[in-house]
DNA sequence: ATTTTGACGCT
DNA sequence: AGCGTCAAA
């Protein structure tokens, strides 16, 4: 039985018009290259005389296993091997909420979304670590710093590393693997199970068998092997697995932290692969395993489909797996989603996301926030100011460290507020944010600016007898728009030039303060009717804006929530479409390159049976030009 | 009533 | 500029 049965059976007829497709594709790739800071991905698709091997992009995701727990266990190693959890705010609701749990704790029935008290009930011996508190709030510095340690090791191995969160990062392995390819093909280096270490192969029981199959094909006909993108891609995948295994071992050596990894052709596939064998394992996801895997993958479990969009796919199309989504034709998708969304989904349904790995190992913003629920809700100026001071105390330390270590300074200070009428009858609060230029890391200046924007907003919503009419249930500040270097005179000058006279009386709350002549930027909330604006959005905006405007189908939405689109950029560098009939044809144009004037691939070879371990089918498909 | 982050797209 | 969505511990 074929390993990809049921997955894309319409691949027979694909693109046929040659030059046109090539032309479009080169244009699309050019766009992709411009956006990608590390152009290795698109370059890798180009076969040249110097570089005869053409492989697909190779992307890994490294994800630390129950990271916060590991960070705590490194500090208190005596708890290693025992069930352990990390909770926030021990003294609050039910002993604090779990934000990380060890695999030992999971085995004993502790669940995410449990609280510390629940965990102790099912597992009395569980070790409970509590997130440090500083300035009256949870302080995650310890985990951020540990995450930075890991990123440093990764940067030592690879140029193109994208910090995706505090504990995970994507790596573009393409360039490194390409460089090694000739040495492995020539047998100077050998792919062995030992070299692959803790590697698993998705949809395969044995790494050994998978490697054996690979080498069997190579021995059989070396020329055919290097000419077959299926074989070459599998081979590259195996090399990638070696590199990632080495990286993971180095991370252990340097940081003591264990992690899992996924190695495949896109962020989406790598992420999915990474989750297949946790903890302390890495998973290779070859092209021919994507179909079978997708047949049992819930749509919700795929990156970017875990929210409203995924739910609306499931409801509208009455399907639940990626395999089913793959069989839905683009026109059908267009009934429910915009043209761009439809195409993006069609790509995603075969594992293609066209998202380059951005070379970025530092966060783009630094912030802190806190919820104030129920009776904790803030309703006086003094309370808000006090918390701004707390936030700034934490933030300024983090900002100054960032400035010293990374030679950059934030230029924008943003205050975020969620407020409600009655904090005891919370449905969903109104969220809003206001910003001010950031021209120094002076605590007093930051407190003043942050408080002023917050107070202006809240006061405009109603203020009487020392209380705001609305209660603040979430408050946060964040620094962003990082610029190289420190603060310069010109930046400060331009800030002062931009100031107008202040309009809010701050003489009592900031007696005699040195900023009293300044006024922060920002709109007057009283004039913009926040509540109403949001209401209008909910009524019409979010529904219509994602619909295909050309074919009105409002009924199909059934009042569903919005379908958030982050795919616009991505679809941009997919082909702009010729007249290919099948969806498959549309997909491959953007994702495959052709060797001009030589072999032209009909479809992404990695998704075919060729090279599958037990198929013994045809070697490769070619279309004579 | 998990909470605290962070990135990014849309308008 | 400000809001919403998605995601990770």
UniProtKB/TrEMBL annotation:
Its main location: nucleus. The gene is RvY_16985. Belongs to the DNA polymerase type-Y family. Keywords: DNA damage, DNA repair, Magnesium, Metal-binding, Nucleotidyltransferase, Nucleus, Transferase, Ubl conjugation, Zinc, Zinc-finger. One of its GO terms (cellular component) is replication fork. Residues 7-16, 569-582 have a biased composition (Basic and acidic residues). Gene3D superfamilies: 3.30.70.270, 3.40.1170.60, 5' to 3' exonuclease, C-terminal subdomain, DNA polymerase, Y-family, little finger domain. It catalyses: DNA(n) + a 2'-deoxyribonucleoside 5'-triphosphate = DNA(n+1) + diphosphate. Pfam families: IMS, IMS_C, POLH-Rev1_HhH. The keyword Nucleus applies. It is an enzyme of class 2 (transferase). This is DNA polymerase eta. Its EC number is 2.7.7.7. Its cofactor is Mn(2+); Mg(2+). It is found in: Nucleus. It comes from Ramazzottius varieornatus (Water bear). One of its GO terms (biological process) is error-prone translesion synthesis. One of its GO terms (molecular function) is zinc ion binding. Residues 59-306 form the UmuC domain. Residues 1-20, 539-625 are annotated as: Disordered.
């Amino acid at each position: 039985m074929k390993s990809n049965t049921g997955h894309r059976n319409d691949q027979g007829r694909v693109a046929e018009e040659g030059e046109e497709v090539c032309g479009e594709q080169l244009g699309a790739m050019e766009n992709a290259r411009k956006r990608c800071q590390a152009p290795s991905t698109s370059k890798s698709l180009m076969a040249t005389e110097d570089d005869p091997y053409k492989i697909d992009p190779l992307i890994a995701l490294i994800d630390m296993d129950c990271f916060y727990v590991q960070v705590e266990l490194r500090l208190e190693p005596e708890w290693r091997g025992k069930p352990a959890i990390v909770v926030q705010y021990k003294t609050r609701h039910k002993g604090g909420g779990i934000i990380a749990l060890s695999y030992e704790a999971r085995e004993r029935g502790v669940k995410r979304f449990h609280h510390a008290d629940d965990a102790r009930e099912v597992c009395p011996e569980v070790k409970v670590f509590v997130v440090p508190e500083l300035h009256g709030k949870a302080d995650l510095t310890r985990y951020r710093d540990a995450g930075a340690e890991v990123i440093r090791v990764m940067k030592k191995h690879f140029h193109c590393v994208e910090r995706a969160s505090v504990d995970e990062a994507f790596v573009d392995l393409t360039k490194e693997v390409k460089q090694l390819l000739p040495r492995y093909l020539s047998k100077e280096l050998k792919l062995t199970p030992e070299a692959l270490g803790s590697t698993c192969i998705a949809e395969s029981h044995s790494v050994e068998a998978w490697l054996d199959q690979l080498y069997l094909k190579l021995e059989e006909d070396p020329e055919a092997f290097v000419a077959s993108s299926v074989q070459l891609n599998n081979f590259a995948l195996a090399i990638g697995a070696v590199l990632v295994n080495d990286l993971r071992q180095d991370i252990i050596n340097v940081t003591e932290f264990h992690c899992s990894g996924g190695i495949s052709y896109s962020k989406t596939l790598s992420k999915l692969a990474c989750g297949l064998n946790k903890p302390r394992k890495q998973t290779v996801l070859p092209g021919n395993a994507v179909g079978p895997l997708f047949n049992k993958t819930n749509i919700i479990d795929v990156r970017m489909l875990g929210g409203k969009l995924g739910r609306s796919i499931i409801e509208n199309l009455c399907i639940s797996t990626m395999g089913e989504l793959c069989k839905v034709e683009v026109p059908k998708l267009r009934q429910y989603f915009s043209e761009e969304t439809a195409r993006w989904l069609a790509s995603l349904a075969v594992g293609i996301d066209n998202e380059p790995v951005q070379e970025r190992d530092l966060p783009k913003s630094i912030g802190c926030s806190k919820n104030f629920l129920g009776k904790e809700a803030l309703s006086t100026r003094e309370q808000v100011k006090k918390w701004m001071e707390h936030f700034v105390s934490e933030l300024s330390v983090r900002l100054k460290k960032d400035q010293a270590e990374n030679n950059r300074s934030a230029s924008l200070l943003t205050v975020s507020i969620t407020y409600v009428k009655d904090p005891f009858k919370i449905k969903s609060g109104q969220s809003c944010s206001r910003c001010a230029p950031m021209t120094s890391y002076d605590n007093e200046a930051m407190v003043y600016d942050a408080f002023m924007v917050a107070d202006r907003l809240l006061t405009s919503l109603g203020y009487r007898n020392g209380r705001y009419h609305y209660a603040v249930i979430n408050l946060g500040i964040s620094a962003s728009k990082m610029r190289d270097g420190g603060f310069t005179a010109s930046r400060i000058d331009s800030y002062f030039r931009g100031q107008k006279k202040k309009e809010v009386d701050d003489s009592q709350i900031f007696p005699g303060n040195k900023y009293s002549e300044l006024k922060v930027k920002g709109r007057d909330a009283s004039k913009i009717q926040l509540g109403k604006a949001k209401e209008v959005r909910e009524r019409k905006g979010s529904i219509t804006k994602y619909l295909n405007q050309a074919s009105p189908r409002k009924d199909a939405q059934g009042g569903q929530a919005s379908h958030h689109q982050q795919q616009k950029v991505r679809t941009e560098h997919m082909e702009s479409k010729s007249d290919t009939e099948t969806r498959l044809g549309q997909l491959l144009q953007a994702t495959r390159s052709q060797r001009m004037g030589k072999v032209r691939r009909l479809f992404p070879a990695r998704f075919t049976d060729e090279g599958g371990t037990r198929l013994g089918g045809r070697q490769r498909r070619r279309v004579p030009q």
